[in-house]
Amino acid sequence: MVYLFSGAIQLASAGQQVGGLSFLQKDTQMIGFSAFVGMNMIFPMLFRLRFRFSTKTILTAVTIILIICHLLTLYTVNVPLLCFINFIAGTFRMLGAFETMVCIQLLITPTRSYAVFYAVIFFIVQGSAIFFSAQVAYILHYLSWYHLHIVIILLLIWTLLMVYFLFRQYRSMKKIPLYGIDWAGYALWCISLSLILFIAIYGKHYEWFHSPHICWATVGLIGTLVLNLYHMFHVKRPYISLETWRYPNMGKLVLLFLALYISLATPMTLQNSYMAGILKFDSIHIVLLNWFVLGGMLLSVGLCYVWFVRNKYRIKPMIFVGYACVVLYLLLIYCQIDPQTNIESFYVPAVLRGIGLLLLYIVLTLYIANIVPFKHNFQALCIMGFIRMSLGTVLGSSLIDNWMHYLTEKNSLLLSPELDSVNTVFQASGLSQVTQELSRQVMMVSMKEIYGYMAMAGILILIIILLEKEMKRLNLFFPKLKTIRHIFKRAVDFDRKS
């Protein structure tokens, strides 16, 4: 949990860093999403690292590196360097979280059920992000981001002492050396994703292709993607194999994940702005909704457990329910865009958002585990990871942000042609008051348009899901660790012989 708290601090303290370090909001987004690139791209290596090092060695190394990263964050104001630090921190944070989850796997589900394990683990991971974000917001109300980093460093030191004194060097199986890992492919994928993030986050700020920064980033992105494709065809075991992309329904899963996170990018980009700018809620009231999102996630865990544990392994109804919750969330927010809306009106939409987010994430990940053999399973999770955080969320936020900018300009022209110096409204109310009311109305009308179009797109997705044929029943059981180790050892032995 300390590793998850560490990640929540990096994201939740970004707002204060904007003012405290004179960063742009775009800078803090780039720094935060660099950590997600590190977390996603280490997936294919997780079991290789686990079969090479003991649990005590991994947790000790992870904790020490995270302490160093937090210390460097306190005394670094260079944005590219902070992006790299957060990339390293995200990589080792995922490694530490994975090691702890594997250690408690049999406690969660002695039968090695995917359904139970993913439901619990994703609730811990996603729920912790929501829970700790709320706690960090409360703490930041009284302290600064600097003190938060000091607190997490002290917690990490305590974790290091616990690992040192309570863990022993134990290995149940012989170690497998780190042989045959495609480090070049790993680097190319990381660079490509980082360039996509840079273009999506800074594109509007630099006026897209009017800027040499965006032009060079686009050239670099095309170059790294071409090199990646060439590399994949000329390496025996590429970091993400071509076979992973060719499994049945992988394309549909990619589109479903992309649609989900573009749909849920609206609260990140619009809802908080609406609550703070129009309704004038402070950060404490805004973060109160996190508890209702957390409650929705808990309901989705119970629904998954009841559905799958009772041998109802059909997946299509669960996907439909998840997307229906997302569409209902969008429709409810659409109906509540009004300057007189109170905080209680957002409780039900927040619960629906929590249900839809976690339910779809669990169900779609279960489907990945069913259609992709374990040999390529973590590569598929890596693909979905950067679709989820490195592409879906960022591209969705960028799309909504630029769409909002376009609609604001359009609606300003439509709503303000009659407002001129001879209009009697100005004489009665004053120029500044009328202008302020105009900007508020423009913002609400633009938001209403976006939520309406997003809801219609969601309804279209629901119709497509209904028209799809029933997916095959799921196989919901993990292989044993010995079986997984045998898969990787056989691959390493084959690479050595060839």
Give a quick rundown of the structure:
This protein is mostly helical and 498 residues long. Helices cover 78% and strands 0% of the residues.
Nearest-angstrom radius of gyration? 24 Å
Specify the biggest β-sheet.
none
Number of helices: 21
* Helix share bin: over 70%
How far is the first residue's CA from the last residue's CA? Answer: 42 Å
**Number of beta strands:** 0
Q: H/E element string? A: HHHHHHHHHHHHHHHHHHHHH
> What is the mean pLDDT?
77
Overview of this protein structure:
The protein has 498 residues and is mainly α. It contains 21 helices and no strands. The model has no long low-confidence stretch (mean pLDDT 77).
Task: Indicate the topology.
Blueprint: H1 2-12, H2 14-20, H3 25-41, H4 46-52, H5 55-74, H6 79-103, H7 105-108, H8 114-140, H9 145-166, H10 183-202, H11 212-234, H12 242-246, H13 250-263, H14 265-277, H15 283-309, H16 316-335, H17 347-371, H18 374-415, H19 424-429, H20 431-467, H21 481-497
Q: What key phrases describe this protein's structure?
A:
21 helices; 78% helix; 498 residues; mainly alpha
